[in-house]
Amino acid sequence: MSDIYDIIPANVKCFTYIDDIFLLIEAPSLEEIQSTVDRTMQRIEKWCDEWFLPLSTPKCAAINLSAKKEQPQFNPTISGQPLPWMQEVKFLGITFSRSNTFKPHFNSLSKKSLKKISLLKILGQSKWGAQTVDLLRIGNATVRSSLEYGSQVTEFAAKTTKKVSQTAQNSIIRLALGLPKWTPNPIVLSISGECSMSNRNSKRNASYFIKQYSLTQQTGVANTITNLKKIASPAVLSKVPCGDNLTNTTEMLNIQPNKIIPTEFPFAVAQSLGVEIHTSSYNFQGRSPNTQCTVNWFNDFRASIPVSTVILATDASKANRLLAIAAVNCRSKMVYSGGLPPINSVFTGEGLAIWLGRRKLVTEAKDYILFTRQHVKSSSPQKYQL
After folding, report:
1. In the beta sheet, which residues pair with residue 277?
2. Quick check: 356 pLDDT over 70?
3. For residue 127, what are the CA distances in angstroms to 137, 199, 312?
4. Rounded CA gap, 226 and 213, in Å?
5. Cα angle vertex 149, ends 26, 263, to 5°?
6. Which InterPro entries match (predicted)?
7. Would you call 15 helix, strand, or coil by DSSP?
8. Sign of CA dihedral 295, 297, 300, 306
9. How far apart are CA 169 and CA 139, in angstroms?
10. Which residue in 31, 44, 129, 338 has the fewest CB atoms around it within 10 Å?
11. d(CA 309, CA 275)
């Protein structure tokens, strides 16, 4: 569907996912909105005819998200059928309402959560029911995951509206642990060791937006945030998840958005020459309960390669407070190590460890073999240009 963007007018924003299309049209007057809507619908109909894609008119709807009291007096048409103006529409599981409050979205989640919690009560019968750990896992997987979905968008909702999420989480914990209803919420969270929904969503949002800053060249989210900070007042930014929340989080983690490592597309390392990368080619790369066997396997391998070949080894390990990386030159015994904030993934650590070995440990014009862990997505030796 990538070519659909070629037919969309310049002043129309198009969001697609598989076969779902969401069009956002902005204009200073309803007359311009109507003209743009008609032109866009005609182009989409023509595009669908060319690709033999029938439009499901009953699934299509229009919504007015403007804060102005003036209501549209026209109906968009598709295939000659008018589309109704709705008070709320659902796109990718998130309900957008006319009032922009997300209240219908959380009301729908509340009803679904109550049904799922009722099923958990059946599973938690005292005589034959599931254990506490299993109930928590099932509840988190079925109820909490749906409440967290789309938190980067639904964070705009008011605190009173979002209380539905915390209420559902507390109900799951009380049910699993057998706590009475009058148990205070802080004690419920403390006993279970769970994090509140607001803190969980803040972490998820911070991780998402930091990733967007890393993907500046591939996505426009980071540029949108930067432009928003230039024109929006502090009062407005305080209500936006990508505004003050991101700033406060990056300050807490001692992260500067302009120094976030940019993400680059992978390149074909097999086409370059210089260093071989092995992730699981030899016995000594796997975990073995007998350390001496691993040492013997490595010594046998070392004896089978030319003496001039230099062996590098890299690794990364993630803990609660630190993502540690290290690189070792087995010839010169040089070791470089460092740490990253735990918000980074172990995959990032593995990649940075390889970069560290390449940058710091390649000091001679020789052949190099680099051994790393299986987190790197490669199953065979690759050539790497250093």
Report:
1. 370, 382
2. yes
3. 20, 35, 58
4. 10
5. 75
6. RT_dom (IPR000477)
7. strand
8. negative
9. 8
10. 31
11. 10
User: Rounded to whole angstroms, how far apart are CA atoms 209 and 226?
Assistant: 12
Q: Which residues pair with 340 in a beta bridge?
A: 323
Alpha-carbon distance of 80 to 58, in angstroms, equals: 13
Q: Residue 246: is its pLDDT beyond 60? A: no
Position 273 scores a pLDDT of 45
Q: CA 302: distance to chain centroid?
A: 42
Q: What is the pLDDT of residues 358-382, one digit of tens each?
A: 888 887 788 888 887 643 333 333 3
Could you tell me the pLDDT band of residue 213, with boundaries at 50, 70 and 90? confident
Looking only at the bridges linking them, the beta strands covering 88-91 and 94-97 are antiparallel
**pLDDT value of residue 162:** 85
pLDDT tens-digit series, residues 223-235:
776 676 676 666 6
Mean pLDDT of 336-352: 80
| 161 neighbors 101 (Cβ within 8 angstroms) | yes
SS (H, E, C) 165-201: HHHHHHHHHHHHHCCCCCCCHHHHHHHHCCCCHHHHH
For the stretch 100-128, pLDDT in tens is 788 888 888 888 888 888 888 888 776 77
Alpha-carbon distances of 199 from 204, 222, 223, 297, 369, rounded to whole Å = 9, 22, 26, 48, 44
**pLDDT band at 17, cuts 50/70/90?**
confident
Beta bridge partners of 317: 324
Identify the CA nearest to 378 among candidates 213, 268, 214.
Answer: 268
* Terminal-residue alpha carbon distance, the chain: 39
CA atoms within 13 A on the CB side of 235: 0
DSSP secondary structure string for all residues of 214-263: HTTTT-SHHHHHHHHHHHS-HHHHTTSTTTHHHHHHHHHTT--GGGSPPP
**How would you label 204-226 residue by residue, b for 16+ Cβ within 10 Å and e otherwise?**
bbbeebbbbbbbbeeeebbeebe
Mean pLDDT of 78-94: 84
* Residue 380 pLDDT: 34
Q: In b/e form, how buried is each residue of 130-166, taking b as 16+ CB within 10 angstroms?
A: beeeebbebbbebbbebbbebbbbbbebeeebbebbb
Residue range 262-282: mean pLDDT, rounded: 60
